[in-house]
Amino acid sequence: MSMLEYNEVKERKIILWEGQPFEVIHSHVFRKQQRKPVNATKLKNLITGRVAEVSFASSDKIEEADIITRPVKYLYTNKGEVWLCDIKDPSKRFTIKEEIAGEKMKFIKQNTEIELIVFTNDDDEELVIGVKTPIKVELHVKEAPPSIKGSTVTGGTKIITLETGATVNAPLFIEEGEIIRVNTETGEYVERVN
After folding, report:
1. What's the pLDDT score for residue 149?
2. Helices and strands: H and E segment counts in the chain
3. How many Cβ atoms from other residues are within 10 Å of residue 41's Cβ?
4. What is the pLDDT of residue 94?
5. CA of 32: how far to CAs of 55, 80, 84, in Å?
6. Do 33 and 87 reside in the same domain of the chain?
7. Above 60 in pLDDT, residue 151?
């Protein structure tokens, strides 16, 4: 495991703090008057979901978490469980809790390749702490209310339903049957593909 200086603890890094993996949500390095610089961070525990505010001094060394990614195939979601399988051997099926996978799974089609984020703790026990999905996905619009003539000038939005069952706000000109691109991290409409 590598050690990070206080100013290397930046957004999206996963560090080991109090023996658990934390993702850095926010980081700001600053100096108060004549004092030494500090890095004020906001950390999210990847196992419990707890958010903590921690300041690291210039003398601190922070351990980077031992994280690996493992490719898997997404099968389906049922009763709060996300079903996945090994890419090479579809008979090796397993589940993870929907809370671990996160909201972005509602934009992922069946049989899509995703990555598990796996943390190895001090006892060499592997814990799945999240999933990595494509940032942008292309999905068919299953249902879209008709737009009212003349209302497109104001640049309004409407709620549409996608092929995965997810709903997003989209511009009024989007119609049923079209393919749109969606950002899985924000859950927002990006652009029309066709």
Report:
1. 66
2. 1, 16
3. 25
4. 93
5. 13, 47, 49
6. no
7. no
| 8 and 58 part of one domain | yes
Beta carbons within 8 Å of 113's beta carbon, 6+ residues apart: 71, 72, 73, 74, 87
For 117-140, the pLDDT digits (tens) are: 998 877 888 888 889 899 999 999
Q: How many CB atoms lie within 10 A of CB 155?
A: 9
Secondary structure element (H or E) that encloses residue 28, with its range: strand 20-31
Query: What is the per-residue pLDDT for 65?
Result: 87
Domain, as residue range, for 51: 3-64
The residue type of 172 is L
Considering only residues 1 and 130, tell me which one the structure prediction assigns the higher pLDDT.
Answer: 130
**91 burial type by CB count under 10 A (0-12 exposed, 13-18 middle, 19+ buried):** exposed
Question: Is 34 in the same domain as 46?
Answer: yes
Instruction: Give the helix, strand, coil percentages of the chain, each rounded to 5.
Output: 10, 55, 35
Most confident segment among 63-67, 85-89, 143-147: 85-89
Determine the residue type at 2.
Answer: S
Give me the amino acid identity at 105. M
Structure tokens at 160: 């549409």
Residue type, 53: E
Residue 43, token pair as written in the block: 């950390």
Q: Which helix (H) or strand (E) holds 101?
A: helix 98-101
Instruction: Identify the residue with better confidence: 19 or 182.
Output: 182
**Which tokens go with 105?**
């799974």
